[in-house]
Amino acid sequence: MARSQWGSRLGFILAAAGSAVGLGAIWKFPYVASQNGGGAFLLIFIGFVFTLGIAMMMAEMALGRAAQSGAVGAYRKMGGKNWVWVGYMGVLVGFLIMSFYSVVGGWTIAYIIKSVTGEVISADAKHLGSVFGSFVSDPVQPLVYHALFMALTVGVVLGGVQKGIENLSKFLMPALFVMMLVLIARGLFLPGALDGVAYFLNPDFSKVTGKTVIDALGLAFFSLSLGMGAMVAYGSYVSKDTSIPGSALWVVSLTTGVCILAGLMVLPAVFAFGFDPAAGPGLTFITMPAVFAKMVGGQLFAVVFFILLMVAALTSAVSLMEVVTSFMIDEFHMKRVPAALSMASLMFVLGVPASLSLGEWSGYTLFGKGVFDLLDYTTSNILMPLGGVLLAILAGWKIWPEIHAQLGGDRGERIVWMPAMKAISCFVAPALVGVILVYNNL
Ligand code: PFF
């Protein structure tokens, strides 16, 4: 059977941007940036994204298109049998991330409902903290929403590459931009909002430490969906005449744009109402509802905000599930429907202890971490950077001519940035990502 393909270049760019733009950009970015010197973090993040990030994005997409296969097949075909386990690792990472990502995706659905009913429309951040705490630690409720989010994701993946993933992204990504612009416009007109903008954009280099740099690199990898084969799978559906460098540049720029917009959406409003911008992960689920409660028409904005968060999470979750589904299709010749359904059920099952570890099962820990934190930590801090280093080494040292050809070098023109791209793959990426790997785990 011929391999599925994206219907258009735009569809591919929006699907890949849909994978990248997710909880990383909208939930993590604003609070990590505000804990790390605002504008200074932003500059470092942009620096990484447009060097390492774009190079690795191109390499993943090129690898997928060259091999016409998802991660496992791609590493096997291009790297030989010693490399195939890097592909297996990517599939495993997709599986592990999806199981806890879907739990958080479930929270976003719950918060849409809680905004509609008014339960979280309160200006009292303490009260909101306890609503959030008791919701996520409840043994039943978050699991129902986790199941719902998983079902939504599988519904899209069952539709296939063009009818499911591409069509959804083509519709939801522009909707996400519009919703963000509306929320930003609303926030910027609040009295005192400009202090938040200044805080976010003014670089305070005194807050920059080694950890800031490492956090920026880690977040850049996570936010761009790199290091686990998602972009290999999406690249394998790209037609021969689509330019990979041009598309990758779009995806990276759109994702960075959304990170900046997310900062501009959250921080001015937080400042205008005198909340703590460095509130950490609770900024989205605890502080933002309090901000909305103080706004005229806030309930409507709260509903829009949580829909936006859910949409962003859904298009990312779809790519995680696609990695695992395409693996079952390519390697075991399964049909799409049983492949997606069986994998989604397993991911749901693994998400159950992840969710319970925030409540009833919080006593069960390994290395001091519950299941949820353990899954998050091992994937983001160990397995994804490891996948990134190995990809860079394969691309730069072993199959460069093939990557070079996929990136347009086969047209015989001299491409000015190509040597930089090769240097990044051979030296910069393995060294820098290797440093994060060591530093994070010492
Ligand atoms: N990029 C997504 C986010 O920022 O939320 C997370 C992610 C999706 C990581 C898909 C990896 C992946 F393959």
TrEMBL record:
<feature type="transmembrane region" description="Helical">
    <location>
        <begin position="173"/>
        <end position="194"/>
    </location>
</feature>
<feature type="transmembrane region" description="Helical">
    <location>
        <begin position="214"/>
        <end position="237"/>
    </location>
</feature>
<keyword id="KW-0813">Transport</keyword>
<keyword id="KW-0812">Transmembrane</keyword>
<dbReference type="InterPro" id="IPR047218">
    <property type="entry name" value="YocR/YhdH-like"/>
</dbReference>
<keyword id="KW-0472">Membrane</keyword>
<keyword id="KW-0769">Symport</keyword>
<dbReference type="InterPro" id="IPR000175">
    <property type="entry name" value="Na/ntran_symport"/>
</dbReference>
<dbReference type="GO" id="GO:0015293">
    <property type="term" value="F:symporter activity"/>
</dbReference>
<dbReference type="InterPro" id="IPR037272">
    <property type="entry name" value="SNS_sf"/>
</dbReference>
<protein>
    <recommendedName>
        <fullName>Transporter</fullName>
    </recommendedName>
</protein>
<dbReference type="Pfam" id="PF00209">
    <property type="entry name" value="SNF"/>
</dbReference>
<feature type="transmembrane region" description="Helical">
    <location>
        <begin position="249"/>
        <end position="275"/>
    </location>
</feature>
<feature type="transmembrane region" description="Helical">
    <location>
        <begin position="382"/>
        <end position="400"/>
    </location>
</feature>
<feature type="transmembrane region" description="Helical">
    <location>
        <begin position="295"/>
        <end position="318"/>
    </location>
</feature>
<feature type="transmembrane region" description="Helical">
    <location>
        <begin position="420"/>
        <end position="439"/>
    </location>
</feature>
<feature type="transmembrane region" description="Helical">
    <location>
        <begin position="143"/>
        <end position="161"/>
    </location>
</feature>
<dbReference type="GO" id="GO:0016020">
    <property type="term" value="C:membrane"/>
</dbReference>
<feature type="transmembrane region" description="Helical">
    <location>
        <begin position="83"/>
        <end position="113"/>
    </location>
</feature>
<feature type="transmembrane region" description="Helical">
    <location>
        <begin position="40"/>
        <end position="63"/>
    </location>
</feature>
<keyword id="KW-1133">Transmembrane helix</keyword>
<feature type="transmembrane region" description="Helical">
    <location>
        <begin position="339"/>
        <end position="362"/>
    </location>
</feature>
<comment type="similarity">
    <text>Belongs to the sodium:neurotransmitter symporter (SNF) (TC 2.A.22) family.</text>
</comment>
